[in-house]
């Protein structure tokens, strides 16, 4: 019987966590206030973590806590208390990149599953088997691992050792994210969750004897983005990942929006259903990948030589749709919505329900919070009322084609 992989979604804050769970993920990965690879004020403290775990579990999703920085001496001393308290919140696993952290987790949270992070750089069965011997339940393979090598790893590791791979999102220019560029240029250490992404910046060369004279690295008159990786998108190739024996399909993006998390969780969950049935993923589901902000897509390193080349024209993102509102309820023949971004009744609108299909939305009337008629929603987080012939579930997303 074919193993059914999980859809693993990012959750950088509570809104993203709810979006991931509501829109169909099987598990989320989140960070605490320490030891995670995304240093941000929106990470979860212990009380918030416990509440997040409860919400996810009630929605049928697991929670994996990122503990994948390499701690300093002082941080290592603080880790036992951190992981013991985190375990008490009910988390399902810890994502770890350091052998010492792994050993402390086994000692202070002995029943907690251990997932070895992509930061470890796992690309072969020998490494996977040794980590299994040390107590790993799952290995998150390096993004540089090909599909053919994943299949070989699967055949040469224990049946109960799970394999996780990234299937969507930003690609790092450095092997398994081991990069010093941000630290060198900005003082923000990528290996401690503070990456400033200088790999996306525009670069020129200068010659020692010609200070101030800049030379383009390519012939493009806009300069060159020598490190600027494309984004990964495997939504049309989940059948190959299933055949290779992947247990968990991971979406990158703990620094991204709740809209991104909701849309991609929903799309990949639906795509997985088609892949498991041996069917081609419909174009409308594939198209969801283009309704979030993204760089040009590629399939990374999965197909041996692959197409994981750099994108040279610029470091910008494509955005075809904007997240403009969320449905709060339905009463007296009206949708009650909270506006998030500017839109008008002339905008091309769609509604995406949790775990549902997008619906073209063509309202003809709208009323503001004072119940006054208007054609423009331009006041941040204001309540609006839109007459409509049918209801949509709360938390349904309203989006508008980007102008």
Q: What would your notes on this structure say?
A:
The protein is α/β, with parallel strands linked by helices and 403 residues long. It has 3 domains: 6-171 and 230-298, Aldolase class I (TIM Barrel), CATH 3.20.20; 197-228, no CATH class; 321-401, Elongation Factor Tu (Ef-tu), domain 3. Helix content is 25%, strand content 22%. The strands form 4 sheets. An 8-stranded parallel β-barrel has the order 1-2-3-4-5-6-7-11, surrounded by 5 helices. A 6-stranded antiparallel β-sheet has the order 17-16-20-13-14-19, with no helix packed on it. Strands 8-9 form a two-stranded antiparallel sheet. Helix 3 (73-88) packs parallel to helix 4. The longest helix is centred in the middle third of the chain and has 19 residues, at 258-276. The chain is globular, with a radius of gyration of 23 Å. The relative contact order is 0.12.
Main sheet: which strands, in order across? 1-2-3-4-5-6-7-11
How many domains would you count in the coordinates? 3
SSE succession: EHEHEHEHEHEHEHEEEHEHHEEEEEEEEE
Helix content: 25-40%
Instruction: State the name of the first-level CATH class of the largest domain.
Output: Alpha Beta
């Amino acid at each position: 019987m074919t193993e059914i992989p999980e859809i693993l979604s990012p959750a950088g804050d509570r809104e993203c966590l709810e979006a991931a769970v509501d829109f169909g993920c099987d598990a989320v990965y989140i960070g605490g206030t320490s030891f995670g690879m995304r240093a941000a004020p929106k990470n979860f403290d212990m009380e918030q973590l416990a509440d997040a775990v409860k919400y996810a579990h009630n929605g049928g999703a697991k929670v994996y806590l990122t503990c994948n920085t390499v701690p300093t001496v002082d941080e290592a001393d603080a880790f036992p208390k951190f992981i013991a308290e985190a375990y008490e919140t009910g988390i399902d696993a810890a994502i770890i990149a350091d052998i010492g952290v792994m050993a402390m987790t086994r000692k202070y949270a002995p029943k907690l599953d251990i997932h070895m992070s992509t930061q470890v750089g796992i690309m072969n069965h020998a490494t996977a088997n040794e980590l299994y011997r040390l107590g790993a339940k799952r290995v998150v393979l390096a993004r540089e691992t090909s599909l053919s090598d994943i299949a070989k790893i699967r055949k040469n590791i224990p049946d109960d050792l799970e394999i996780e791979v990234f299937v969507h999102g930003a690609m790092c220019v450095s092997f398994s994210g081991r990069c010093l560029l941000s630290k060198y240029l900005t003082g923000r250490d990528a290996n401690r969750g503070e990456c400033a992404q200088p790999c996306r910046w525009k670069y020129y060369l200068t010659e020692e004897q010609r200070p101030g004279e800049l030379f383009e690295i390519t012939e493009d008159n806009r300069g060159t983005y020598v490190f600027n990786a494309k984004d990964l998108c495997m939504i049309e190739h989940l059948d190959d990942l299933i055949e290779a024996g992947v247990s968990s399909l991971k979406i990158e993006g703990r620094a991204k929006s709740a809209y991104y998390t909701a849309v991609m969780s929903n799309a990949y969950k639906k795509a997985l259903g088609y892949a498991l049935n041996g069917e081609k993923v419909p174009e409308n589901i594939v198209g969801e990948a283009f309704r979030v902000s993204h760089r040009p897509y590629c399939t990374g390193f999965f197909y041996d030589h692959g197409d994981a080349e750099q994108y040279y024209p610029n470091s910008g993102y494509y955005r075809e749709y904007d997240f403009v509102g969320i449905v709060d309820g339905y009463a007296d023949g009206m949708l009650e919505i909270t506006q998030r971004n500017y839109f008008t009744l002339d905008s091309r609108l769609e509604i995406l329900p949790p775990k549902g299909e997008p619906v073209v939305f063509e309202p003809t009337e709208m009323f503001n919070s004072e119940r006054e008629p208007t054609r423009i929603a331009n006041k941040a987080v204001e309540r609006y009322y839109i007459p409509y012939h049918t209801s949509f579930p709360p938390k349904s997303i309203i989006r508008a084609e980007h102008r």
